[in-house]
Amino acid sequence: MMSSCVVLIVDDDDDIRDDLAHLLERRGYRTVTASNGAAALDYLTTAARPCVVLLDLMMPIMDGWALREEMCKHSALAEIPIILLTGAGDLARDVAALGAVTSVTKPFQLTTLLDAIARHCTAARSTPEH
Amino acid sequence: MIPPSVASSLEFTASLIAQTSHGGVFAVDRALHVVFWSPAMEQLWGRSAAAVVGQPVLAALPAAVADRSVPQLDRALTGVACAERDLAYEVAPPGHAGSFDAAYAPLRADGEIVGAVAVICETTRRRVTEQQLSETEQRFRNMADASPVLLWMSRTDSLCTFFNQTWLDFTGRTMAQEWGVGWAEGVHPEDLERCLQTCVDAFNARHVFEMEYRLRRADGEYRWILDRGTPRYAADGTFAGFIGSCIDITDRRTIEAALRKALVVKDEFLGLVSHELRTPLTTLQLLIERLRLEDVERLSSMQVGLLDRMDTATRRLAHMIESVLHYSRMQSGKLRVDPREIDLVAEIEPLVDEVRPSAARKGLELVAEASPAVPPIVSDPDVLRLIVSNLVSNAIKFTAQGRIGVAVLHDGGLHRIAVSDTGRGIPAAQQARIFEPFEQLEPSRQKHTPGVGLGLALVRAMADALGGRIELVSEPGVGSTFTVVLPQMTLRP
Description:
The complex is a heterodimer of chains A (130) and B (493). Chain A is of the alpha/beta class. Chain A has helices at 14-26, 37-46, 64-72, 75-78, 91-98, 110-120, and strands spanning 6-10, 30-34, 52-56, 82-86, 102-105. Chain A has a five-stranded parallel β-sheet with strand order 2-1-3-4-5, sandwiched between helices. The longest helix of chain A is centred in the N-terminal third of the chain and has 13 residues, at 14-26. Chain B is of the alpha+beta class and 493 residues long. Helix content of chain B is 45%, strand content 26%. The termini of chain B are far apart.
């Protein structure tokens, strides 16, 4: 039985997005992916609210900062915990500026990311398969 | 013989002159006999009044002086006052030479010329001083003109009254053109106001000043000048104006600008490269996880071993990228330090747990220990974690067998983190070098240990950023202990 906990993965890299989705699904999460901020916003404003958003910052069309700005305009979306998936830059500053709960630097250990999701994704999820 | 009343009148007048004169004074009657001889005359020629009064002046004065004086005294007796400057003389004992100024005037009683008075000023010392001054002045000018730097000097009213030849050659102008504030005509119009204001402020405050401005060279090109001015004082401590020296720093500024640009480009390049490297590395790591998760039952133990090695290599690559990036950030001053109150033991423990598997793979014992009741410290936990993880991964990397220790200590009011190993140790001669960037003990051609040699350079720079330091105790063949000494930092409001 799949859980009601949805993780929204927003990253412009196809491999990362798909591999991450696959691994999280195997750990019992439902995942939705978006390749840029605009696609993510589309999902957020039309579908069920995800428990947590994994957000890359540097993306074409609409980057992570712009998406966050849009999310803050809707009180329901502003509250969704955000975990930054960042490649570079000033982590502490970005986390603070975006109101993210935490950040995970690429390349990351899967366990580190799973710990972060588990901490901030409060909804129940199904038992992992492994 | 002259009547006594006239003689006393002569003596009286001459003594009055003597009291108000710096020189020696003597008076003669119309027969050129000495009637007055002041104490200063005694000092000048070594003959007392008692010995010379009543004697002919020719006998009273040294011959060389008398030769010059008698004709003038004769003139004075005809009613003509006269004076002579810098008369050279030589008297016995031989070699005693000098010069004097002399003034002669007729003395009258009841309208009649009754005698003459002479005032004699020894000028030998003044002449020597003047000569010395002129030599000093000439020496200063020679030095100033031979100097490769541009020199100027101003008076107390801030007008410039001297420029050395180097300055005049540089601007291609004359001293008369530069004199006063003429020099300002060569200053670039955009710099002029700031330049003059700096001068005025420094003059008023009598402070040393330093400024950079553009000055027109003889060929018309504006060159950047670094000008340092210092107040100068006379021997008695009174303010005498300013003296300044200037050097052409145009080339230096060009190089500095190029360097700054190169640093920006390097930062941008490193940022870009690291971003581009991180993405495929992340994919690689996720793929390794997928392989492990999905196909682990179908994999042979050899294949699982290969996966582990792929995993280690990927992590090492990630660590190297981090090191290069951190080093670049430290170099460009972009590493921010954010002090917070932290529990050092709680910060360090997870780091030790993280490296436990890699220590175990090499068969190394990993021991974490702490002083009892380590008080909290105000420091930056992120920077601390980077320091310790670098030291610990270094210890594991360079230790083939034995033990790695991580100790959190508190004594004497200072927190210390000591990372010790039983590795090959570092010879004393090389202990300073290993903290230099891109330095490793192995020559690169025989290199067996991975890494770019940034770890310890980073550790030292980060310890500095925390206000602390790094200490090393090492013995070849026994092992090394790197100790980070940490002070309490100040919490930001």
